[in-house]
Design goal:
0% strand; 2 domains; mainly alpha; 110 residues; single chain
Length: 110
């Protein structure tokens, strides 16, 4: 059994609810776990997109001059994201899914 398989098995044991993992079919993101269908042109329901935008903004503002400075900005901006901000996006998933259903898959405010 591979290390990644063991990690997934450990996660599945620790999660109190039934979770569905999603993947984007990028070969480095694939795993041998059951996944749900995810149409290529579907609205992005990934709450981490908002957090990645925070990091991109920090990088744009800092204007790093080399890879080391870039890495430092990324690490510092990631560490500066408040837990409550992360929780807010995770907690919004129900509303995001409901909005997608209401709009029959078309764009939402998210």
């Amino acid at each position: 059994i591979s290390t990644s398989t063991l990690q997934v098995m450990s996660l599945e044991e620790e999660m109190p609810l039934k979770w569905v993992f999603q993947q984007d079919n990028d070969p480095k993101h694939t795993s041998k776990i059951q996944v749900m269908e995810w149409p290529a042109q579907s609205p992005d329901l990934n709450p981490t997109e908002n957090l990645l935008a925070d990091i991109k903004n920090a990088v744009r503002e800092a204007k790093p001059r080399n890879a080391e400075e870039l890495w430092n900005v990324v690490q510092l901006s990631w560490a500066a994201i408040p837990v409550d901000r992360c929780r807010k996006f995770v907690d919004s998933m129900r509303h995001r899914c409901e909005a997608i259903i209401r709009n029959r898959g078309y764009a939402t405010k998210y």
